[in-house]
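Regression test attached.
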Amino acid sequence: MSVIRGARERARIEVTAAIKDEARRQLAAEGAAQLSLRAVARELGMVSSALYRYFPNRDELLTALIIDAYDAVGEAAEAALAETADDAPDARWIAVCRAVRAWALAHPHEYALLYGSPVPGYAAPQDTIAPASRVGLALVAVARDAYAAGELTAPAGEPLPDELRTDVERFAAQLAADLPEPTLAGLAAVWSQLFGLIGFEVFGHFHRVVEARDAFFDHSCAALARQVGL
Amino acid sequence: MSVIRGARERARIEVTAAIKDEARRQLAAEGAAQLSLRAVARELGMVSSALYRYFPNRDELLTALIIDAYDAVGEAAEAALAETADDAPDARWIAVCRAVRAWALAHPHEYALLYGSPVPGYAAPQDTIAPASRVGLALVAVARDAYAAGELTAPAGEPLPDELRTDVERFAAQLAADLPEPTLAGLAAVWSQLFGLIGFEVFGHFHRVVEARDAFFDHSCAALARQVGL
DNA sequence: GCCCATGCAAGAGCACTGCTCTCTTTTGTT
DNA sequence: AACAAAAGAGAGCAGTGCTCTTGCATGGGC
C-alpha cells in the first residue's frame, strides 16, 4: 500500500510526523488547552503559517492526536489480551482493565482528550470511531472466549427491558458475537463504568478518598467482571 | 449571617452575581474553553479590566462556577433523596441516579467542567471539596437507610483486601456511617462508575452504540445497586 | 539539461484572548 | 464639604488561531 513516491511526498510524511510528535510532547506536558500551533512550529524551527500546509487547523491536529491515542490504548488492551490468551477469563479481564488503567495513568492528558470533555463544538469525526472501539472490543473478546469455553454465567438482575432489545441485537450483529443478550447489555454498561473508575483516579476525584488505588481498582474490576457473568 | 452592610457591598454582590450569571450563560452555550472574560464584560456593558475587580483571573471565575455547579448537582441528588424518603431502597437509589443523569444531560458543559478533564494545571481548591462530595453522600445515605432498615445484603465477591482497610475505616469515621466495610468500598466504586455511565452518554460515546438510553441507564443502575447490596 | 508549475516557507497582518498598569470618576463615610 | 477607598476606563503587552501575499526551490515533463 505505502509505495514510496517522490522525495517530496516522503518529506511531507516526515514533517507531518514531526509535527505530531512535537504536538504530542506539548500535549503530554501541558494538556490540550495549552497546545499551541505557534509553539509547535517554533519548536520545530518553522514559522506558524507553514504548519497550516500540514494541518488545516488546530482541531485537525488534535483529531490526529486523538486517533493515535485511541490506537495506543487499544493496542495496550489488545496486548494484555494476547499475553493472557491461556489464562482464566477473570484473570484476562483484569489484565485488560489494568492495561487500560496503566496507559491512562501514564498519559493523563491524552486520556483526558479521549474520555474527558470533548473538545468544544467537536463531533467525533468518522476516522475516530474504529480506533475508539478497540478497548471495548477487547473486553468483548474476553467475554466471548469465556462463553465459548462455557465459563460464562448469566448476569444477575432483572431481564432485559424490551427497549434495549434492538440495541443489543445490533451489538450481536456487529460483533458477530455469540453471547447471551444480557451479557451484551452488561458489557456496554461495564465498558463505560470502567472509564468512570479510571477517570475518577486520573482526574483526582479519589484524592483523599481512595488511597490504596491499586487494590481498590482490582477489587472494583472484579465486581465489574461479576457484573457481566465472568 | 448575611447582614446587609453598605450599599457598596450590596452592589458588589450584585455585580459578582451578574458576572457569574453571564459566565454561566456562555459556559452553557459554548463550553469552558470558549468562556471569555472579555466577552462576559462586553455583554455586561463594562470594560474587561473592570471585571478583574471581582475575579482575580479566569481560573477563579471558573472555580466559582464549578462550586455552583457541584452544588446544583448535589441539590438535585438530595432533592431526589428527600422526595423518595418513604420508598424502597432500590427505588431511592435509582431516583438519585436519575436525578444526577438528568442534571448532566441538561447541563452538559457544566457537567464536563466537573467530571470531564480538569482545567489545565488546575488542582481542585479547598472550597470545592465539600460541594463535590454531595452526590456521593446522597448515595451513601440511601445505603445507610437501607442498612438501618435491614434491607441491605452483603455485596458478593472476594473479601476486602487488607490494603483497602485503612481507606474504608476512614470512610466509616468520616461518614459516621454504620455500614459494613465491603459496602463502603463498593459505594466508592459505584460512585465513580455512575459517572462513567453518565459521562459516556453526555460525551457522546454511546452514539450509535446505545440508543435506548433511558432503559439502558435504568438497567445499568439496577446493576450498580446490586453491586452495593441494595 | 532546461523550464515551468507546483509545493512549501516566510512574513505581515487581523481579530481575538488574558492580564497589568495608570488615570479618572464615583461614592460612602467622617 | 473633604477625603479615602472602591470601581471603572483605557491603553498596552504578549500571546493565540488563522489568512493572505510574496518569494523561493525543487521535482517532473519536455
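Expected vs. actual: identical. Chain B touches chain A through 65 residues (CB under 8 Å).
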